[in-house]
């Protein structure tokens, strides 16, 4: 994120942030850099979906950007994520940092 955006929300490089919209929410580490324009949050790639608990809308602790995007394909041929309209907000995460459980496999959600 841009340094001006980070400063406005009290975020420093390396802080844990909650990124969210009406589709979902996730945790990600902040990388503050003037390489990003103001108003842009970039989530390059996360891990598989790792919800904090089994409740609908639970925060994704592994930073999977698919949590925030529309569930529609980019085309009939390429079934990739269509993320051109992914508007989000972000804030410094104030909760207890969840444990890293990535090495045990994903939680199955039914």
UniProtKB/TrEMBL annotation:
One GO-annotated biological process of the protein: anaerobic respiration
EC number(s) from the headed UniProt entry: 1.6.6.9
Domain of life per record: Bacteria
Gene3D superfamilies in the record: 2.40.40.20
GO molecular function, one term: oxidoreductase activity
Alphabetical list of Pfam families matching this protein: Molydop_binding (PF01568)
Annotated GO CC locations: outer membrane-bounded periplasmic space
Protein name: Trimethylamine-N-oxide reductase
